[in-house]
Amino acid sequence: MSATRYTYLGPEGTFTEAALRTLPEAATRELIPMVSVPAALDAVRHGDAAAALVPIENSVEGGVTATLDELASGEPLMIYREVVLPIAFALLVRPGTAALTDIKTVTGHPVAQPQVRNWLRAHLPNALWESAASNADGARLVQEGRFDAAFAGEFAAATYGLQALVTEIHDAENAETRFVLVGRPARPAAPTGADKTSVVVWLGEDHPGALLELLQEFAVRGVNLMLIQSRPTGAGIGNYCFAVDAEGHISDRRVGEALMGLKRISPKVRFLGSYPRAGVTPQDVRPLRAGTSDGEFMDAADWLARSQDGRI
């Protein structure tokens, strides 16, 4: 395995590359752009890279389905870090494009379109949109003359010999995208007190309240959920699994017991990792509900043991 190589969703100039370069270790790694999320993750699976950074959630569009599906299937991988990057788009054009009236065709990543839909409606109502593999790939297509403009990061302009006709484009203020650093399975890092645990859970027999039963495993133990998204399993209409992000670390008693509860009632649970939450410190984490701390779980287990031994 190449311990010094990280892959990411390319080509050069993507928001994913910008997010990866915020990691301190990126300065000492060979950063390799890949054509797709599956290609970036497969490089890790095949030992061609130590880790891959890929987008997993957008504050406007929700979960990035390509990443969720890849993590739910195939050879298991684990999440070790997350990066949250503020997102604002620039409208990149070839030099000489002077006005919005010159733009008839636009491109960008499919996740970008919902984030600029209102701006498009107001400023380019007649422009034809066609999706690209990534925002940076859209910039490359503009460079080649296949589109008039692309929505991408302003930092991509220099890479592709383009100029920003309009900057700071976004329909939602404070839009963000979350990226995850994914590697081969290993022991999770020690808890920090401000952690997140990710799993994929499959529903068993379809019956009223089946999803509620899964959610109750978290609720009764005071584990807050930060994301839950359904994804088809491919086994037919109505067959779904659920990607779940929960507050806490697998070593926390409340989280560990919730995962054991899921394992008992679900036909399949895939652990995706416990890792530090980006930009969150232990002081930022809300206090635990009464009865859900590790100490209280241990006291309850001790009480049960004493009761079983007649030491009431």
Low-pLDDT parts are none
The biggest beta sheet is recorded as: 6 strands, mixed
CATH class of the largest domain: Alpha Beta
Please identify which CATH superfamily of the largest domain we are dealing with. Answer: ACT domain
Q: How many individual domains?
A: 3
Radius of gyration: 22 Å
What's the CATH architecture of the largest domain? 2-Layer Sandwich
- Distance from N terminus to C terminus (CA atoms, Å) equals 56 Å
Shape type: elongated
Number of separate helices: 8
Share in β-strands: 25-35%
One letter per element, helices H and strands E, the order comes to EHEHEEHEEEHEHEEEEHEEHEH
Q: Helicity range of the residues?
A: 25-40%
SS content category: alpha/beta
Total E-strand runs: 15
The pLDDT mean sits at: 93
Kindly identify the CATH topology of the largest domain.
Answer: Alpha-Beta Plaits
Describe this structure in words.
It is a single chain. With 312 residues, the protein is of the alpha/beta class. The chain folds into three domains: 1-87 and 172-186, D-Maltodextrin-Binding Protein, domain 2, CATH 3.40.190; 89-169, 3-Layer(aba) Sandwich (D-Maltodextrin-Binding Protein, domain 2); 187-312, ACT domain (Alpha-Beta Plaits, 2-Layer Sandwich). The protein contains eight helices and 15 strands. Strands 1, 2, 3, 4, 5 and 11 form a six-stranded mixed beta sheet that branches. A five-stranded mixed beta sheet has the order 8-7-9-6-10. Helix 6 (210-219) packs antiparallel against helix 7. The N and C termini lie far apart (56 Å).
